[in-house]
Amino acid sequence: MYSISRNFENGIDDASRILDINGLLDQNPKEDEINVENSHLEARGKKNRHADENNYQEERDKKLPAVYPETYNAPIEEFDDILLYTVGERAKKSKGYRTDLLNAQSKNKKGSKGCDGAKRRRGKKIEGIDLTSLLINCAQSIAADDHRAAEELLRKIRKHSSPFGDGKQRLAHYFADGLEARLAGTGSHMYKALVSKRTTASDYLRAYYTCITSCPFFTISNFTSNKLITSKSEKSMRVHVIDFGILYGFQWPTFIQRLAEREGGPPMLRITGIDFPQPGFRPAERIEDTGRHLARYAKMFNVPFEYNAIAQKWETIKIEDLKIEKDEFVAVNCMHRADNLVDEIVDNTGVEESPRNMVLNLIRKINPDIFVHGIVNGAYGVPYFVTRFREALFRFSAVYDMLETNIPRESPERMLIENGVFGKEALNVIACEGWERVERPETYKLWQLRHLRAGFMQSPLGKKLTDSAAYKVRKFYDSDFMIDTDKQWLLMGWKGKIIYALSCWQPV
């Protein structure tokens, strides 16, 4: 068995390996059919099943990053050294990449002084300008239908913001985009245009790797979840993981590797990958591809493997769709995706029960041996615009400050993260309403009440595990990253602001 330290190191790199560069380059349907058959891959969500997808479903799916294999143009070896190996010399290269980021960021700070022209525009320091107040005042003017005041405030914000400046300037730039779109009534159009922009596989991989190398949140979440499931299922010879929001399955290669190291041989592993259907003729295409990639890893490590893909709205899933078998250890996993589920409290949609509660009730009916839930911690899922804007500004200020501290300003990967991920989320929160608003996070304290009402009791994370997670953050990441616990929630944040949280549950 891997030690906790080695598992964590592997998690940093193996999280990115799931995209399988060779698979991106070679999409041979016949070869895929063979791999699917050998791994017992089963797929749900054919095109006829989802012909009547509503607008909200499309918006919810479009927020996910798009990767286009045909535009991949970087040499495979580039990613081999950075992503595919975790020991020996290549492990040192991985550590070196993190060091290079910090060194470049440090030089960037020193170089921003005394520059002129375009460079000064990118790194200038603003004296006497409170962008936070300008943004809040602008939001209040828009809420009051005072277009003249809002337009004047927007002009001031635009004058002192830039997508190339420091963290505050970049935050102001993207929030101004949202305010401008809301003022003009073009939020939906702008959001759709932003999410439809093509991102090459190579750019996406670089951005993703830059993110997990400089920020511990996703790595720690996956590490903690995998460790909990592995330790609690160690005596079971049949393990069934039901992953709500599997996306590309970044979490599971190291989990498969851990199972392969088990004394006495690995168990039979079944993964049910659940995600929202994609618009178009192949709603289950992405999660089917995820299953093929995971099947390759299972074959690599000689782990018996089955995969079941379900592409449909989570609240419509029936327990029989999950094909749960007797005598198997059942683990339910949901990492940072439940914030996209609607709650009837924040939207008067006429739905008898909120999808958010319906999914929790479904998980309770599954009666899992363990339910690991990671959430986006935020209070900007509320309907009132100004309150939502303030809460979003509070959270995204921490995010952009975190990026400013840990990634160089000139990094194209940082710009992709800021624009294509967080900028897009901010635009949705600020400029979209109703079904089109898909970013709806709650605080971990509200999720605590939801879990208890649904019939769950909290399972302790364990001091050894939380101490290990905190140690890894201190060792590998900036000192302003924080790991804490409250009511058996693992809290992850930046400079005291909680950004993500994770907890473990069992049915009562």
Automatic annotation (TrEMBL):
It comes from the Eukaryota. Residues 289-321 are annotated as: Leucine repeat II (LRII). The keyword Hydrolase does not apply. Residues 431-506 are annotated as: SAW. A motif (VHIID) lies at residues 239-243. Pfam families: GRAS. Signal peptide: none annotated. Keywords: Transcription, Transcription regulation. This is Scarecrow-like protein 9.
